[in-house]
Amino acid sequence: MSNTWITRAETSADTPDVRAIVVAAFDTPAEADLVDALRADTAWIDGLSIVTTDPDGRLVGHALLTRCHIGDTPALCLAPVAVLPEYQKTGAGTAAIRAALDAARNKGERYVTVLGHPAYYPRFGFTRASAYGIGISVDVPDEAMMALALDTDHPLPAGTVRYAAPFGI
């Protein structure tokens, strides 16, 4: 197992490998179908689908940021994040998420939301969204809905998160 992860933006040639990673990481192909649907949606932002490779170039992880809104304010949604099962807990997912957040910051994006494991995402700076008046239109555990301001000069806005249509939320 490598601890030397390489991250880069996904290319069109990576599409089959990204799908294979996402299918392997989850119990059903629903998340992989979501990634495919988001690729065709206006929420897709070039350069914010990040892959992690080992030093030999094998794709082992993926993190995706797509457009969402907090109220009327443009933001990004981090989902899904996937790593091949044999590479989970090796830092491959962390590397992809950090690279995705850096890419978003470099594009001038300000806010990111994530619906995920409350013990995992705070390491990236995510905190409970409800503390900022950010909600979601479906019933989820309060601690699982988190948000992050990428630029401290622009605090998180309040509002309900509106996801891209492929999410079905």
Task: Give a quick set of tags describing it.
single chain, 169 residues, alpha+beta, 9-stranded mixed β-sheet, 21% helix, globular
Summarize the structure in words.
The protein is of the alpha+beta class and 169 residues long. Helices cover 21% and strands 30% of the residues. The protein contains 3 helices and 9 strands; from the N terminus they run E-H-H-E-E-E-H-E-E-E-E-E. It has helices at 15-25, 30-39, 92-106; strands at 6-9, 49-53, 59-70, 73-83, 111-115, 127-128, 134-136, 145-149, 159-162. Strands 1, 2, 3, 4, 5, 6, 7, 8 and 9 form a 9-stranded mixed β-sheet that branches. Helix 1 packs antiparallel against helix 2 (30-39). The protein is globular. 38% of the residues are buried.
Please describe the topology of this protein.
Blueprint: E1 6-9, H1 15-25, H2 30-39, E2 49-53, E3 59-70, E4 73-83, H3 92-106, E5 111-115, E6 127-128, E7 134-136, E8 145-149, E9 159-162
The percent range for strand residues is 25-35%
Which stretches are low in confidence, meaning pLDDT under 50 for 5 or more residues running? none
Helix content range:
10-25%
Task: State the distance separating the first and last CA atoms.
Answer: 37 Å
Number of helices: 3
Structural class: alpha+beta
Please provide the ordered H/E string of secondary-structure elements: EHHEEEHEEEEE
DSSP strand tally: 9
Largest sheet: 9 strands, mixed
Rounded Rg: 15 Å
Overall mean pLDDT score?
Answer: 96
Shape descriptor: globular
